[in-house]
Amino acid sequence: MRLENVTFAYGDKVILRDFTLELPDAGVTALSGPSGCGKTTLLRLLAGLETPQSGRVDAPGLSKTVILFQEDRLLPHFTAAGQLRAVLPRGADPLPALAAVGLEREADTPVEALSGGMRRRVALARALAAAPGKRLLLLDEPFTGVDAENAKKIMKSLRSLRLPILLTAHDAESLRMADTVLTFSGPPLREL
Known about the structure:
Blueprint (H helix, E strand, L loop, with lengths): L1 E9 L2 E10 L5 E5 L6 H9 L6 E5 L6 E4 L11 H6 L9 H6 L15 H15 L5 E5 L7 H13 L4 E5 L2 H6 L2 E6 L4 E2 L1
Parallel strand pairs: 3-7, 3-8, 5-6, 6-7
Antiparallel strand pairs: 1-2, 1-4, 8-9
């Protein structure tokens, strides 16, 4: 995965300017930096959700990518299992993905009844359920509200997918679990 001489702006606000970066094709890579520096925009460019004004992005593209947004984006009035059934093939069992995030006992619980950290774990389970057959997993602040013990368990499940994983993180524990940590400042985004 590579970005070459990429420039991207939201209106007059330049987020990336002539930005070049080569990313590992395997393992877990954490993108670290202050809020607002451009990490989320970088993920959106890699997913194909944004198009640069100039430069080139060589990445799998949206059809080959699973992205977890900062917001959980769960379906209202659905149970935890129902969230996963929405992305699984018809008749597939949602329990393995819920078990991977420690929520198998909450399968029939409506998401509105879950805590914020549990809802985040449901969103992560949905990403896990959608990942087979994909080539890239992009996770924007995946462990927000998730305790350290569950974060470690989830990271083990993520690694078992054997996909390149890019995640944004602020907390030291998430950074410690990554194979590679890239630190940025910005905007415009630049590697330190």
